[in-house]
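Course exercise 7: structure representation. Students receive a sequence record and must write out the corresponding structure in token form. The form below is the worked example handed out in class, using L-aspartate oxidase (538 residues). Read each field label carefully; the graders check that inputs and outputs are placed in the correct fields and that the protein name is recorded exactly as given.

STUDENT ID: A-19
EXERCISE PROTEIN: L-aspartate oxidase
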Amino acid sequence: MIPQYLIDIDWTQLPVVSTDVIVIGSGIAGLYTAIDVAEDRRVLLITKKTLLESNTRYAQGGIAAVTAEEDSPLYHRQDTLMAGAGLCSSSAVDVLVHEGPRGVRELMRLGTLFDEEDGVLALTKEGAHSHRRILHANGDATGHEIVRALASQVEQHPQVEVWDDHFVIDLVTWNEECLGAVVQMPDGSRVFVRGEATVLCSGGAGQLYRYTTNPEVATADGVAMAYRAGAEIRDMEFIQFHPTALSYPGAPRFLISEAVRGEGAYLRNIKGERFMHRYHELLELAPRDIVARAIVSEMEETRSTFVYLDITHESSDMIKHRFPTIYQTCMQFGLDLTSDWIPVSPAAHYMMGGVKTNLQGESSISRLFASGEVSSTGVHGANRLASNSLTEALVYGRRIADKIRELPPVSKAQMPTAFSWERKEVPSQAIVERRLKLQKVMVRYAGLRRSRGTLLRALEELNRQLPLFQSVLTRREEYEFANLLTVSLLVIEGALYREESRGAHYREDFPQRDDEVWRKHIVHVRDQGMTEEISDDV
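STUDENT ANSWER:
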């Protein structure tokens, strides 16, 4: 049993800070939403590390939007629906592809400098896109440039207050309405932050897995706290593994962008053979889930821990100009992208599921919104199309801001009662050990390939950790582990329930996609278990 709150709370004893809108997270979703809302509202932006530390910062490939004459929203829509494998919301995708170009123009107005060629925006192509529509910045540092521009705007904005190094422990609700959040300050004290609206922009869940392209901060906090608050959580079984993360002794699992394959790179097994022709007609540009599983199959067949990414047949100047960050990072480990085959293997990358929202970014709890990777708008379905994530954060961030302006004032008389739970001191085993064990369990039993047997084993292993919720938690790493444990159980339960293979969810005991039975979503609600929801993909 997972309680509503991670800590015992007596509201009469907590200091109260009031603002108009609370934004939790500082990736593209949080920064852009804060800037838009702050046109006529006071915003408190809370980030658990720094303004510049988020998944967005590490996004290399770019942002997908229709800007070329030969492209169209219809093509972008078709590509997104195909990648989503029958579980996209067609209405959510329509919003994305038609409003995405406006979002890109807004980024440029706010100071983002995208790469150009001969005075026009430079565009590249990535896996499963039918046209070149990926805008990028500084070659392969798109996320870093977007965060730089938006963070600069936030820091200068008189209506936005930023709390760095603060941890949001839980959302505060009363009568199915979100009143704000309990926040732990850097000194360990706690405060109740009250707002007219709360926007979750807290990112993804890469740290569920031992090998991930995500930074340390990606610990599934937003999904976990929304679940505890009673919000609907959807599609959690769909975790995208990026096919090509650097796999080299002593090196982090650094992302080797899909754009490298978009510019012509080959995948080779350790025998030097190209192999994607055996798995998909689009070869190296097949959807990510197919490429990732193909790589795992080749690794198993050749008894290797990696395959090679080979772009040595392209010009050295092009590689250095187009991929300066990847080139320099590989060089730090003695690998030359222009002349060496680069060892790569799949790593956890993106969470398609999250807090279920409507087209205005509203969750099932009044006054609680979600944007970015923490949300489940319906855009990504069972498998996100490359570079759609940054676009989604812009489009739905603006819609959230518009909806917040329509909200009536919240009743100040509403206050929750005190909350307590039977708790004892935290178990002696170090949290860092328990976190590593959880990550290993997820990689081994609930990763790229799953079966009933492996998933039941994962459930058995992680259920042993449930006494954590009866412990007295005081430190950030304890809250993060509680969030990882919560969300890992949602992933496993959803994967067990879905007895088919679709998109990023692959069951070895049910290897076929079954539209007749499973063209539907799995929705989790605390205290209610799982329910089904028919997909509106057409």
